[in-house]
Amino acid sequence: MRRRPGIGGLQTHAAARDQFRLLGENVAKIRTDLMKEQLATFRSQLEDFARKHKNDIRKNPAFRSQFHEMCAKVGVDPLASNKGFWAELLGIGDFYYELGVQIVDICLATRVHNGGLINLQELCHLLRQRRKSDRGVVSEDDCLRAISKLKVLGSGFEVITVGKKKLVRSVPTELNKDHNEILELAQAQGFVTVDEVERRLSWSSGRAIDALDTLLDLMQEGLAMIDDGHRDGRRRYWFPCVSPISSSTAVDS
């Protein structure tokens, strides 16, 4: 018959558990303090790096992108505020604010042609044209960072991925998975037909027509256009946001 441990034995076990708990807490605190110390060292080194290479960060888009990656690894966001050390040292807060304003202007100017969805590459091209003397210093990464700061304006102004392309959305239009697949299919020619959607996506006629009809509801925003003028009698659904035809003329004019 097993004997129960006495009161002294229970107290010994409890004391041992407390010691293990305290030991675990001390180890965790040491690790946390060490990580904080290393992080502070990294941030200090990052500031020294920024001082030494500030001209490259301002003028070289590839170098600037790598600098942002370094900042992210140590929890630093140079764009978090237009005031403070990073803004005074680099001035990149003002740079991205200026880009954001120009991006809004371009999206508004081209909205009548693309319905508020513009290819990221085209947006960057138009942005470089607008900046003229600084055409070579704005990258897609810069555009993406500037757009991320535009989210404070509310719905709209976000980047969505359709196939291999990134589109910038500047209107509060909700696109579902079927819409995205149709837009991806339309990238080749800028348009699709019901027959093509059925064949290429292996959809039923009802699903294809329903998805296209809901996209037609967005026509008032300029996202889609109908073309019934072909000899084969097949209706073509055009989507300027993915069409090879650029909307640059809207900005130039």
Characteristic terms for this protein:
mainly alpha; 11 helices; flat
Textual characterization of the structure:
With 253 residues, the protein is mainly α. The chain is built from eleven helices and six strands. The strands form two sheets. It has a three-stranded antiparallel sheet with strand order 1-3-2. Strand 2 and strand 3 form a beta hairpin. Helix 5 crosses helix 6. The protein is flat, with a radius of gyration of 28 Å. The model has no long low-confidence stretch (mean pLDDT 75).
Structure, briefly:
The protein has 253 residues and is mostly helical.
Helix content: 55-70%
Largest sheet, spatial ordering of strands: 1-3-2
| Residue-averaged pLDDT | 75
Task: Decide which structural class fits the backbone.
Answer: mainly alpha
H/E element order: HHHHHEHHEEHEHHEEH
Instruction: Determine the number of helices (DSSP H or I, runs of at least 4 residues).
Output: 11
Unreliable spans: none
Question: In whole angstroms, how far apart are the ends?
Answer: 98 Å
Question: What integer value in Å does the Rg equal?
Answer: 28 Å
Number of strand elements: 6
Beta-sheet strand percentage? 5-15%
Shape: flat
What characterizes the major β-sheet? 3 strands, antiparallel
